[in-house]
C-alpha cells in the first residue's frame, strides 16, 4: 500500500478467501444499502415530527444527538459480540431493531420521534460489524476497493432513500399532512425486507469463541467510560502503532461531517425554506454524484496514492466548502456548486481512513477495534450534534464555522507523522 509501512497487524491480516460463487459480499452490500435507504427515506420528513415545538431545528439536533450518542456504548458491545458469536447474529439483531424503531414512528408524534432515536441508535452500532465482515472476506489487495465500494453504497442509499420518498409523494399526490405517515410506512416495509436479507447472510467470521455474561457486563461498563475506551485504544496502538492517530483523525472528521445531519434542519428552517420534496431532490443529486466519484476514486486511484497526503489535501480543500454552505444565502446554484465540490473533496476521506485502520486489524480483534472506533465516532457525533444544535439557536449559519474548523483539524492531524 502506497505511503504506509508494513506493521505486525498487516502481516497477521489473513481474511477468509472470497470465492467466485461467494454471495456474502453482495449480500453485505445489499444489507448496507437497504439500511441506509430506510434512514435516508425518512430524513426529509423528520421536521414534521417537531414542527409544533419551539426551536424545531434544536429538537431535530437533540434527536440526532440521542441517536448517535446511544451508539457510544452499543457499537463496542456489538463489535465484541460479533467477535465472540459471529457477524450474522449482529446483522439480524440490527435489522430487527431498525424495523421496530421505524414502526415506532407511527403515528407522527414528537414523543415517538425521540423514542425512535433511542431505539434505532441501540442497534445502529452494526457499522463496526459491517466493516469487520467486509475485512473478514477481503483479500489484502482488495480491501481498499471493497471498503471504498461500501462508501459508494452508502452514498447510493442517500440517493435512493430520498428518491423513493419523492417518487412516492409525487406519484400518489400525498397531501402535506400525510406525507410523513406514507414515508414511514415505506421505511417499515423496506426494513422488513432487510430482516429477510440478514437471515439469508452466511457467516463471515470463523474464529468465534463466545462471550460470557460477565465479559459483556464488563464491556458495557467500559464502553460508557470514555477514559476506559481511551486506555483500550492506547493498548491496541501499542500492538499496532498508528491505530490511535487514525481513530483521532476519524473523530475530527466525524465532528465535521455532523453537517450531514444538520442539512435537513438548515435547508428546511434556513433561508432556503426547502420542503420535503426539495430536500429529497438535493440529496438525490448529492448521493448520485458521490457514488460515481467514490466508485472511480476507490477503484482506480486510492491504492495508487499516498493515502495520508491525500487525506491532508482533501481535508484542506474541503474547509472552504463547508464555510461556503453558511454563506450561500438563497442561491440554489451556489448550493449545488458547493455540493459538487463537497463530493470531490471531504466526502472521499472516510473510506481512506477506514482502509488504513482495517490494515492494522487482525482476525481476532477486528470487531473490537472497529467497535472502539465507532464508539469514539458516536461520542464525536453526539458532541457535534449538541454543538451545532446550540449554535443554530444563535444563528443558523454558525454551525458551518464549527464544521469547517473540525475539518481543518483533520488536515492537521493527518499532517503529523505517525510514530
From TrEMBL:
GO terms for cellular component: membrane. The chain crosses the membrane at residues 27-46, 58-78, 90-108, 147-170, 182-202, 246-267, 279-298, 310-327, 333-353, 374-394, 400-415. GO terms for molecular function: transmembrane transporter activity. It is a multi-pass membrane protein. PROSITE patterns: MFS (PS50850). SUPFAM superfamilies: MFS general substrate transporter. The keyword Cell wall biogenesis/degradation does not apply. The keyword Transmembrane helix applies. Residues 24-419 form the Major facilitator superfamily (MFS) profile domain. It comes from the Bacteria. It is found in: Membrane. Gene3D superfamilies: MFS general substrate transporter like domains. Keywords: Membrane, Transmembrane, Transmembrane helix, Transport. InterPro entries: MFS, MFS_dom, MFS_trans_sf, Tet-R_TetA/multi-R_MdtG-like. Its main location: membrane. This is MFS transporter.
Amino acid at each position: 500500500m502506497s505511503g504506509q509501512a508494513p506493521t505486525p497487524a498487516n502481516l497477521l491480516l489473513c481474511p477468509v478467501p472470497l470465492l467466485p460463487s461467494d454471495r456474502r459480499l453482495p449480500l453485505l452490500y445489499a444489507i448496507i444499502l437497504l439500511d441506509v435507504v430506510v434512514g435516508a427515506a425518512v430524513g426529509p420528513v423528520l421536521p414534521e415530527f417537531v414542527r409544533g415545538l419551539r426551536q424545531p431545528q434544536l429538537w431535530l439536533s437533540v434527536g440526532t444527538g440521542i441517536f448517535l450518542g446511544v451508539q457510544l456504548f452499543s457499537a463496542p458491545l456489538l463489535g465484541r459480540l460479533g467477535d465472540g458469536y459471529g457477524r450474522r447474529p449482529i446483522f439480524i439483531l440490527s435489522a430487527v431493531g431498525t424495523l421496530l424503531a421505524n414502526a415506532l414512528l407511527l403515528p407522527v408524534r414528537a414523543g415517538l420521534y425521540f423514542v425512535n432515536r433511542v431505539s434505532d441508535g441501540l442497534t445502529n452500532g452494526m457499522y463496526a460489524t459491517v466493516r469487520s465482515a467486509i475485512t473478514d472476506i477481503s483479500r489484502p489487495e482488495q480491501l481498499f476497493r471493497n471498503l471504498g465500494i461500501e462508501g459508494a453504497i452508502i452514498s447510493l442509499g442517500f440517493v435512493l432513500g430520498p428518491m423513493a420518498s419523492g417518487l412516492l409523494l409525487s406519484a400518489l399526490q400525498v397531501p402535506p399532512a400525510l406525507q410523513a405517515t406514507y414515508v414511514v410506512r415505506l421505511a417499515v416495509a423496506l426494513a422488513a425486507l432487510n430482516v429477510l436479507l440478514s437471515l439469508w447472510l452466511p457467516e463471515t467470521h470463523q474464529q468465534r469463541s463466545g462471550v460470557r455474561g460477565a465479559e459483556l457486563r464488563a464491556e458495557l461498563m467500559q464502553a460508557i467510560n470514555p477514559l476506559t475506551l481511551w486506555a483500550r485504544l492506547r493498548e491496541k496502538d501499542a500492538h499496532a502503532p498508528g491505530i490511535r492517530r487514525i481513530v483521532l483523525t476519524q473523530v475530527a472528521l466525524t465532528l465535521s461531517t455532523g453537517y450531514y445531519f444538520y442539512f435537513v434542519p438548515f435547508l428546511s428552517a434556513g433561508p432556503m425554506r426547502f420542503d420535503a420534496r426539495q430536500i429529497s431532490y438535493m440529496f438525490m443529486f448529492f448521493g448520485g454524484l458521490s457514488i460515481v466519484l467514490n466508485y472511480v476514486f476507490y477503484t482506480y486511484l486510492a491504492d495508487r496514492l499516498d493515502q495520508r497526503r491525500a487525506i491532508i489535501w482533501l481535508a484542506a480543500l474541503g474547509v472552504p466548502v463547508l464555510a461556503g454552505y453558511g454563506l450561500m444565502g438563497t442561491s440554489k446554484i451556489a448550493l449545488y456548486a458547493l455540493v459538487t465540490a463537497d463530493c470531490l473533496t471531504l466526502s472521499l476521506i472516510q473510506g481512506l481512513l477506514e482502509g488504513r485502520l482495517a490494515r492494522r486489524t487482525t482476525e481476532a480483534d477486528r470487531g473490537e477495534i472497529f467497535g472502539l472506533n465507532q464508539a469514539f465516532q458516536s461520542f464525536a457525533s453526539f458532541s457535534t450534534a449538541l454543538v451545532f444544535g446550540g449554535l443554530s439557536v444563535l444563528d443558523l449559519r454558525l454551525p458551518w464555522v464549527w464544521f469547517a474548523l473540525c475539518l481543518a483539524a483533520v488536515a492537521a492531524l493527518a499532517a503529523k507523522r505517525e510514530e
